[in-house]
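Help! Submission page says 'invalid entity' but I think these are all valid:
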Amino acid sequence: MAKLSERKKKILAAVIEEYIASAEPVGSKLLAEKAGLHVSSATIRSELSELTALGYLEQPHTSAGRVPTVLGYRLYVNELMQRPDLSREDADRINRSLGDPAQGQERMLDHAGRLAADMTDYPALTVCSQPPDTVRRLDLIYVDANTFIIVLLLGSGTVQNKLVHLPFSVEEAQLRKLGTVANANFCGVTEAEIDAERIRAAERAIDDRMGLTAVVAGFVIEILSRCHCARAAVSGGAKLLRQPEFQDPAKAHSLMDYLSDAGNLSGLSFTDAAGQDIRVLIGPENIAKELRDSSVILAKYDAGDGMQGLIGVVGPTRMDYSRVAAKLSYIAAGLSRALADSAGTALPGFGKLMLTDPDKKPGRP
Amino acid sequence: MAKLSERKKKILAAVIEEYIASAEPVGSKLLAEKAGLHVSSATIRSELSELTALGYLEQPHTSAGRVPTVLGYRLYVNELMQRPDLSREDADRINRSLGDPAQGQERMLDHAGRLAADMTDYPALTVCSQPPDTVRRLDLIYVDANTFIIVLLLGSGTVQNKLVHLPFSVEEAQLRKLGTVANANFCGVTEAEIDAERIRAAERAIDDRMGLTAVVAGFVIEILSRCHCARAAVSGGAKLLRQPEFQDPAKAHSLMDYLSDAGNLSGLSFTDAAGQDIRVLIGPENIAKELRDSSVILAKYDAGDGMQGLIGVVGPTRMDYSRVAAKLSYIAAGLSRALADSAGTALPGFGKLMLTDPDKKPGRP
DNA sequence: TGCTGGCACTCTTTTCTTCTGAGTGCTAAT
DNA sequence: ATTAGCACTCAGAAGAAAAGAGTGCCAGCA
């Protein structure tokens, strides 16, 4: 790929920025006035025609202005565009919005997604991958003769539980034994390692003839398998309809349908964001055919404990890459920070209580 | 409101059904052929013009066919339409889809919502109100010196938990004491009753100077307050775009935006479904202005323990009321059944295990 | 050699006009 | 009461013409 002259670059950038703003093919005259280089429209015309020959621009039809190609966008994103600084208000808004860490990870992600959608005016998606988890510790709480609770503390620090009703009765002592054995057998191992073999071993160890061990094992397996698949969510899907390229309901429908199935996103987008902090996928660079006419911008965030996730937006290829990238990376950073805070936070719930009764605040002296 | 002749009713019903199917104004000629009464189009024309005068129909313009008014739809829904029986496949599909109760309430609702959206081709909404809940039992699980888990068993049977990290250390014995006191003070009471007074009393009882009691209380309050507000969700929002009345992106956008904010729905729709099993809100009968041009059909379901919820769909006023009502009420019934099952189910997790290893199945002989 | 103004040409978009057809309301006859 | 017939209305389709935006190319100028 031959190096472009400075002027060509400047013109290309101007075309793209203009097109992003107006959604209409850009002509030489407009560029001559706006692009800041003091040459005539004829000169620009010849430059445009060369850029077109090189594949960075194209014409919808002979007598129309130029529109960026995917190659053009790519060059723009890689080399030409400069990330603008966030405005004071935007930065404030993000900080304020992600400021309160006392909400739990899921809510937080949801919140960040909405924020991203609102601030960029594109639908936002959040993906949170989880590495295969293990049980760190398992407790059985006796409720009554027919009922107990299983509580799992996972390696990642989250806690899961389930209330179990039995069609027969169990004694507390028996449950305690079960708990010990289950801890010994099901902790620290991956989902795959909990096989029938292991379960039977545990069963024999406490002479369990009623399948209690299997219940516990079943729950452990269910939880481990649920955790390790990535969770994805989309907010603000309706925002697509604002974009001129989605005025055609059929197009909008197909993309929105695709987005509304969270499963589609969880797998796909994650592998795409290998190295960088922010990743831009333009049009056909997307693997999913539903996204071939759109672009996706993804920012990586850190969810603590080595877990990481993505927050991003989907829009037409004519997307305001620089603005969105700036906002997303700021949001991702904020999210990482907030999640780190919330994981290590001491005395959660404190804030809320003080709110209820600020004067007589309980707590340490 | 004067009683309509049988023939007028038949014609009105025919107009509405035809309009529902075609989305286009219905003319006298078509009716003469299809409506099954053996009269000429001229006769029908005069009937139509009377129905128009009575306010059941209207004309978009002089030389167009007739379109139902809200009044017309209302009469149709109240008196004219007959709920068709579900086709065998549809009934099967619903039963199969809601058959597996081992998923947890939230997933189940979500699942039912998707099902409703898929089967009706309109966006579906689910609302689940919860009566104020109380803690039935509270456990604190000691993990290590700086960490413990709070487990709440609620009156409704759900279990909630939280992992707490402390900036100082606690002994196991101390935690046990705390558990006892917390059980004594925070169980069986509503959120409002857990005030600073009560918390301080508990604190004094175990000489808690580190605010541990407050942490536990904070969590209890958080959970109780979270449970008691209704949860709402929408699935298949994109399906709106298939309806001709939402070809205009602006219209679609405003409604979809409204729907995507779950808060809007939770409050509103619930109060509307007082008596009946199924409730139809046509156009301006909706309170929310965003729904004034649309209709909502709601079916009530029973979530066990006196809790109840709504499942419904949103669509244009030109909605296939009878078909949708039939499906929704079947789904609602199935959902009630499934939720009842899942609450009382014995040995959850069993099925899964057997699937993994059908030969060497563990369990009771 | 690089830039510019000028000009003919192309093609979309807009606007205006005309035409068509579905559907009505009325009337007179059965 | 019902029907056939007929004149009338009006939205939407189809077509023609005009407008406009932008290009490519060329000849002249620094």
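Support: the input was valid. A stray whitespace character was the problem, and the output above is from the cleaned input. Residues 344-365 of chain A have pLDDT under 50 and may be disordered.
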